[in-house]
Amino acid sequence: xxxxxxxxxxxxxxxxxxxxxxxxxxxxxxxxxxxxxxxxxxxxxxxxxxxxxxxxxxxxxxxxxxxxxxxxxxxxxxxxxxxxxxxxxxxxxxxxxxxxxxxxxxxxxxxxxxxxxxxxxxxxxxxxxxxxxxxxxxxxxxxxxxxxxxxxxxxxxxxxxxxxxxxxxxxxxxxxxxxxxxxxxxxxxxxxxxxxxxxxxxxxxxxxxxxxxxxxxxxxxxxxxxxxxxxxxxxxxxxxxxxxxxxxxxxxx
Length: 253
Description:
The chain is α/β, with parallel strands linked by helices. The protein has helices at residues 18-29, 42-54, 71-83, 107-134, 146-149, 156-176, 194-199, 202-209, 221-231, 233-236; strands at 9-12, 33-38, 58-63, 88-91, 138-142, 182-188, 243-246. It has one domain: Rossmann fold (3-Layer(aba) Sandwich). It has 10 helices and 7 strands.
């Protein structure tokens, strides 16, 4: 699909399941060398690496709890060692943690959500910067439709964190343009992944489905093309600071 991606070294955080796993497989299918990051899902990450290898691709897994201080820097350093450098950083790791209405929100939840969705992404970008500067690399962050419309019931803190990610993406695009580094984001809509298996009830998913013009939830694989497109200099070399919505028409900004 994108011939210029072949040989690029790619770190995908949160790549053991869902969108991250699909993205890791997608980059590998384009001939990239991929570092598959995971936290608790070691078996799932192993399965992703094995699937990539069986398809003729090149992938290695690495573990790290990105909610802990200092782990994002270590994960980036380990990926650079495994891959021999870094050309593309996909900041996909993140989670809602738990649904909480305003009266249930406390400082612990705020810290957990922002550590996992905001702080680690910031640190990963900073750690990757010297390596990305060498080859005018690319950063692709995973946002969310929630960052635009505020999220569903009990997802306010998560939605705010994703809005932060999307705004930060635009700021970094300005800051790193002189280095030839492009920074963009993909904002998935309601994609059926373990995320929604964990945080959304069938009734909630059906309510969301009814708001989607295409009439169905998306799949992780349907998000992959946006990441590959943004990583390709041939296809997206003049695109930076953008947030690509992948949501079946649920939000048309």
